[in-house]
Backbone:
């Protein structure tokens, strides 16, 4: 009886590779949501995410139209394309929501975040912290003989990189605002219908 001969590399797929080839990869999306500035709205939006297990990487909210009493919520979330579509559809159906814009899909957008980082160190570490802060254009907004508080504005990736470099130099505390984002050019996150209703 002859031995079964299997040529090396003859099979393109391993029997142990059980991943579903149809599985969708997760994506990072930035959503701008225009809502009524009233009590309980933010809790309802957060409840939508937590109740369905959706992820929130960053969330910022502030009033943007005092006359129309409108606030803008900027949410950075991750999920498969189908999950992102579900999030947008469910947000749009909420009564206090006037408009939902996916800045990741609609086109190029500007994203910025502000961070405060406290670094405690002396000697060479203190000198190196100041040198790196100058490279990243971070401002020292508080200074003592033992520590600095640096203010840095930029993309989340820039802040992450600066924080990692500060860690061995004595980083002891970080406060971040979360992402604020806006579409580049003449595009805007408020639909024409919402703009007319708010101005009326």
Residues:
């Amino acid at each position: 009886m002859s031995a079964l001969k299997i040529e090396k590399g003859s099979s393109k797929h391993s029997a142990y590779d059980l991943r579903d080839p149809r599985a969708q990869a997760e994506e990072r999306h930035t959503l701008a949501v225009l809502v009524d500035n009233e009590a309980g709205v933010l809790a309802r939006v957060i409840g939508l995410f937590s109740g369905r297990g959706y992820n929130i990487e960053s969330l910022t909210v502030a009033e943007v139209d005092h006359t129309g009493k409108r606030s803008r919520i900027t949410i950075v979330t991750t999920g498969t394309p189908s999950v992102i579509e579900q999030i947008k559809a469910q947000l749009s159906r909420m009564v206090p929501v006037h408009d939902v814009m996916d800045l990741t899909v609609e086109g190029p957008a500007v994203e910025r975040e502000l961070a405060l980082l406290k670094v405690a160190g002396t000697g060479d570490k203190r000198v190196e912290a100041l040198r790196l802060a100058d490279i990243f254009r971070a401002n020292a907004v508080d200074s003592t003989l033992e520590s600095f508080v640096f203010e840095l504005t930029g993309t989340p990736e820039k802040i992450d990189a600066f924080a990692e470099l500060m860690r061995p130099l004595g980083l002891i505390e970080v406060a971040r605002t979360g992402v604020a984002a806006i579409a580049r050019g003449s595009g805007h996150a408020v639909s024409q219908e919402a703009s007319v209703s708010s101005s009326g």
Q: What stands out?
A: Confidence is low (pLDDT under 50) at residues 1-17, 192-200.
